[in-house]
Amino acid sequence: MPQLFQTIVQPVVTEKSSAAFEDRKVYTFRVHPKASKPEIREAIEHLFGVTVTDVRTMQMRAKARKAGGMGRGREGRRGKWKKAIVVLKDGDAIPIFEG
To answer: How far apart (Å, rounded) are the C-alpha atoms in residues 55 and 52?
Structure first.
């Protein structure tokens, strides 16, 4: 089991996650692969001082990586990772997504 500060790896900032944040105040994070929903909820509430109402998780599959320019480069795979989609109580916000 990961420690509290190791549970949340980084926020996921993509066009799709930004649109979800603006429309529905839904936050997306990359989390530790062995983190459970209660652990993710506890980490978000402790780190950001907000109230979490819903946590959804999904395993993102590994993808093939193509060789780089001019025939050189490394072929291989990008590793799998776990994504958490977090919904907060009305009125709560996480400042790293605001700016």
So the answer is: 8
Q: How many CB atoms lie within 10 A of CB 41?
A: 19
Look up the CATH superfamily of 4-64+78-90: RRM (RNA recognition motif) domain (3.30.70.330)
* Type of residue numbered 35: A
Q: Dihedral, CA atoms, 31, 32, 36, 40, nearest 10 degrees?
A: -40
Whether pLDDT at 88 is above 80: yes
Name the residue with tokens 């930004």: 18
The rounded distance, in Å, linking the Cα atoms of 40 and 55 is 8
Please give the mean pLDDT across all residues of the chain: 87
Query: Nearest CA to 88 among 99, 80, 78, 98?
Result: 98
